[in-house]
Amino acid sequence: MSLQNFINDAISPWLNTEGVDNDIVLSSRIRLARNFEQVPFPTSGQEDALTKVLEYMEQEFDQQSYEDFKQFQLVKMNNLKPIEKRVLVEKHLISPELSDKDQTGAALISKNEQASVMVNEEDHLRIQLYYPGFELTKALEKAQELDNWFEDKIHYAFDENRGYLTSCPTNVGTGLRASVMMHLPALSMTNQMNNLIPEINKLGLVVRGIYGEGSEALGQLYQISNQITLGKSEEDIVEDLKSVVQQVIENERRARDWIMEQLGIQLEDRIFRSYGILSNCRIIQSKEAAKCLSDVRLGIDLGLIKNVSKTILNELMVLTQPAFLQQYAKKTLGPNERDVFRANLIRERLQLEN
Amino acid sequence: MNCQRCQEREATVHYTQVINGQKTEIHLCEQCAEQEGYMNFSNDNLSIHQLLTSMFPFDQNVNQKQSVQTTHRLTCDRCGTTYQEFRNRGKFGCSHCYLAFESYLNPIFRRVHSGNTKHVGKIPKRIGGNLHKQRELEQLQNNLQQLIHDEAFEEAAQVRDEIRQLKEDLNENKGGDA
After folding, report:
1. Which residues are CB-neighbours of A229 under 8 A, at least 6 positions away?
2. Which of A258-272, B23-37, B112-126 has the highest mean predicted lDDT (pLDDT)?
3. What residue spans define the domains of chain B?
4. Which of A23, A314, B115, B130 has a Cα at 20 to 30 A from A77?
């Protein structure tokens, strides 16, 4: 596989379109957890029954289309090579848990990769929709429509009091998890994230670094999502999340203005140094790569760097993860080899831009 | 940077620990991290389960022996999941488990969902008529309370009539498609 192809394939088509506020919110996601009424949940491990769910989904929905989501394709886990699964995981089309379910796991993926329905992960169906930028309302609306499309044929497990029944008590009710992926370099630089995260948690929302642990998010990428799924309507869950995200966006913009004003040439220096490192490095660790990528993306958003595409941060954050690198190299790499390989990959990718 | 423990290999695992505001950074190579228990990747799920099961308020305040005995015997008669298994794994086995373990669920849901135990969101179309109307009724009754509270009596009278109509519809449909 050539690098050019690989990169093209590693990025879902929908990510290349522009979205609202996409200088800060990279993507919005809606996930609905659903189960068949009469079938034990995947957590029960009753493979015969789960195989029937898989066969049903294949028979009814493989190669079908629903409005914008054309040509769903059912991909069975046991037909995939490890590297192919890994690619799907890194593109967030399937979860690592699903990729382990060789016998019964599958994903129903639309051609534009915007909709992906995991079959027999923790629940029978996990309907996921992605939109670029800050588009939670639209994503929810479309997810509901898609849900209705499935519901025309499938008898969902539903209880008047408890709502949609799920394997895990944390998803019961709406089965809805709404989330946004945000790039917050200025709030991080001005040390405001440590104050902001507990405040957001108090509102029943979860903030976590997308890569890295705890408050130390690699690449200044954060995911914010709802925690509560029971006792609130889908619309309220999304509205509550939106109002918090909106405030975070405003804070980040203010912080960006502030650092531009206060740091001026120093900020420019930092950004172009990072750009220089990425374009010229021969050995680079994932932590440094993430920091530099975040700087470069900020430089693009502030209009300082002009000839590099915005998606570079999303792309390279995925491509330079240790596990992904090894899959790409098709062999196990020691830590030092990994850093050399990562440096090569980043340099080549940046050259493609020019 | 070399590994703090063996001082030989390069440190590739970086661990930041914050206890009572005291931040400690630990830098280890993979081998040492595994030995020191910082890298139990295969057990990752377990910790989430533990976190979840620790939220389950079991057997406190109740005579412990007795409650363990009765919950032991509690089994979902459709999928065979026992209450004990549900408790350990933090996962239901099938939709029927919700009924089988019903009497233990409210405290769990309250903890996980900020005090909520009842669904108020989307209803599948097939569930149809009555439940949708029931929801509407609850909504109108809330509105009525608010209107009375705000002393908007004219509007309140309208809402009251709507409620009456809806109740009649519901009575007619009783035993219907719900």
Report:
1. A170, A171, A172, A173, A174, A175, A176, A177, A237, B113
2. A258-272
3. 13-46, 64-112, 125-177
4. A314
| B15 interaction partners in chain A (CB closer than 8 Å) | 213
Predicted confidence (pLDDT) at residue B60 exceeds the cutoff of 70: no
What was the pLDDT predicted at A6?
41
ipTM, two decimals: 0.80
Chain B residues near residue A201 by CB distance under 8 angstroms: none
**Can you give the residue range of the structural domain that contains A44?**
1-17+31-171
Lowest mean pLDDT among A5-19, A52-66, B112-126, B152-166: A5-19
Query: Which residue in A44, A168, A232 is closest to B81 by CB distance?
Result: A44
The answer on pLDDT for B73 being more than 80 is no
Query: Does A336 contact B10 at a Cβ distance shorter than 8 Å?
Result: yes
- Tell me if A199 is assigned to some domain: no
Q: How close does chain B come to A132, measured CA to CA in Å?
A: 25
Say whether both A163 and A265 belong to one domain.
no
Calculate the CA A326 to chain-centre distance: 21
Q: Which residues of A are annotated as a binding site for ATP?
A: 27-31, 92, 126, 177-181, 208-213
Q: How many domains does chain A have?
A: 2
The nearest CA of chain A is from the CA of B158 a distance in Å of 26
Average pLDDT over residues A327-343: 81
Same domain, A145 and A281: no
DSSP H helices in chain A: 3-10, 47-61, 82-90, 96-99, 136-151, 185-189, 193-202, 234-263, 265-280, 286-301, 312-319, 322-329, 335-353
- Whichever domain contains A143, its CATH number is 3.30.590.10
What average pLDDT does chain A have? 86
